[in-house]
């Protein structure tokens, strides 16, 4: 069952409802014959952090990857339904996937910096999208991206070191900096803190909070506390469907579905 | 008696020992069902079988080395041997003839001096055969009895069998290592002899190569090996690589990144099949098909010196031959780049080919380089193709349409020539072989180190 955004607005959530950045309508995803997502519809707003929670294997990552069409890279994966980004169907034929992925960035569960220098890691996106015309402009993007990712002070003297030589938490911030370097509109994060310690996690959460003013952020997480801390909206997935979607405070303090309640109180795996 | 028969005998006895020991272990068990055997009955069997076989096989091998000398010594002690010439070739021939008749490999002798030696040979061979057989039997039975008598219900044969298995495996692996050392030493010995006649400086820096096996003394001016090194590098490391690196790399990229799994399942073994084609077949192909085509092409574009044997023909075919070496190493190392790296690039909006060029290949580069080094080492050691298609002329030229010669070709030519084995025109082959051995060893060593470091980087 899908709670539309307006339903959430009736609740105590103090901020006004924003217009939808991403609207999914009856999205189903199949891996070969196996269905992983079953007719999901959801509106994801601008300038908020939306959290996807749910038990392992329920399809959170799969659904997240439909938003930047990363499922295209998996042989045998098929997507039905439509996903609108600013009202434009990203699965329509003739859609430029390269452009789409420049607008919808992604941060993965395990930090995956390229085996290149820190500078080259950030410059990668701007280069392939031809965003800059001069070296100084590129330098500027590298610096501002690292700054926004809160990594600049730690790496400004070692931009030519390999990105893989950083600590796990630094690598993950590097990957966030890499994603924001192309100035996307949406950032998808799939369990971005699951490989990090609590201090590095806190840094990333702070960062997510700072970034939300600028981007629509969708984060998959297994940590209820994290969802409660960083997100304003939460969708609870179960068995390939969205069971409940609403403001985070509603979902956590006043879930309407029994299954949601069981899950967030830890009575459900 | 041949050592094979002695060894077969030892194995037969050891089977008997195995059966005997195992039934003894069962007997222990029946006699006292309450007590557990320290090892399973099968281990008791193996324990005794090893005690039978190992000493007997060791003796049989040693005997096969020792007994010909013993036979010879006893033949020479015979009064008839006093008529033999003291040294040299003739003496060896006479002894060889007598032995051949005695063992039934020949029916009559040419040299009358050999006739009286046949009987002593026959007697000595017979005597030492019997001795060898008896001692093998004694050693096998002695070992087996010793092992059998040590069997007790609480005697742990399992650990002892395990330990001897390790020993046997160690010996097996030493064979390869010792062979390498042996090759190296024999090359070294002959190489030193060669460098006693031709100075290493002349050899390594001279640019004129025309060894004359008939010349009474070596003219160091004829032993300048630079044209051979050049030909080897030009054919094996330049022309062949110009073919093999791009084709190998591109097929690896296609197979890992673009091909569907069903295409991959067919293409990969087919490609690897190329590596299994005997090089002599490539040789035909180079000499009969490619070389004439290359010559015609050269003449068509106005190169008068284009000859029917050319560096280009040999290099092209060699390049095709080593495509699988490059592609399978590149394939492995590209496939070893974590999927996360590829996803990261694609999620940035990079296209598939941008991802390959900017992320996958740089990440896989060490493995690719190692593959190329192995391929080079394979190419410069390759013989058949150059023998059949590159020519014998030691030209120092960059014109690929000209005939050129290589180190391997010259080794073949020198060793199959009519020179005697103490002439530099023959010994030079060992110096060349030594050099080739060192270069390929270094290449392989460095390549393996690179691959190892690379593996560690992604662990
Ligand atoms: N590449 C794939 N091929 C086939 N099936 C897949 C593939 N990826 C995921 N699935 C299946 O789709 C279902 C949803 O997987 P998904 O990875 O989206 O779950 P998830 O909610 O992200 O789980 P987790 O919390 O463990 O990451 C699972 O049953 C999974 O087995
Ligand atoms: Mg997941």
UniProtKB/TrEMBL annotation, chain A:
The keyword ATP-binding applies. One of its GO terms (molecular function) is ATP binding. Gene3D superfamilies: P-loop containing nucleotide triphosphate hydrolases. Coiled coil: none annotated. Residues 22-264 form the ABC transporter domain. Keywords: ATP-binding, Nucleotide-binding, Phosphate transport, Transport. SMART domains: AAA (SM00382). PROSITE patterns: ABC_TRANSPORTER_1, ABC_TRANSPORTER_2. This is Phosphate ABC transporter ATP-binding protein PstB. It comes from Novosphingobium cyanobacteriorum. The lineage of its organism: Bacteria, Pseudomonadati, Pseudomonadota, Alphaproteobacteria, Sphingomonadales. The gene is pstB.
From TrEMBL, chain B:
Gene3D superfamilies: MetI-like. Pfam families: BPD_transp_1 (PF00528), DUF3708 (PF12501). Residues 230-447 form the ABC transmembrane type-1 domain. It is a multi-pass membrane protein. Keywords: Cell inner membrane, Cell membrane, Membrane, Phosphate transport, Transmembrane, Transmembrane helix, Transport. The chain crosses the membrane at residues 43-63, 130-149, 169-189, 228-249, 270-291, 311-334, 355-376, 427-451. PROSITE patterns: ABC_TM1 (PS50928). It is found in: Cell inner membrane; Cell membrane. The keyword Cell membrane applies. Part of the binding-protein-dependent transport system for phosphate; probably responsible for the translocation of the substrate across the membrane. Belongs to the binding-protein-dependent transport system permease family. CysTW subfamily. NCBIfam families: phosphate_pstC. This is Phosphate transport system permease protein. It comes from Novosphingobium cyanobacteriorum. The lineage of its organism: Bacteria, Pseudomonadati, Pseudomonadota, Alphaproteobacteria, Sphingomonadales.
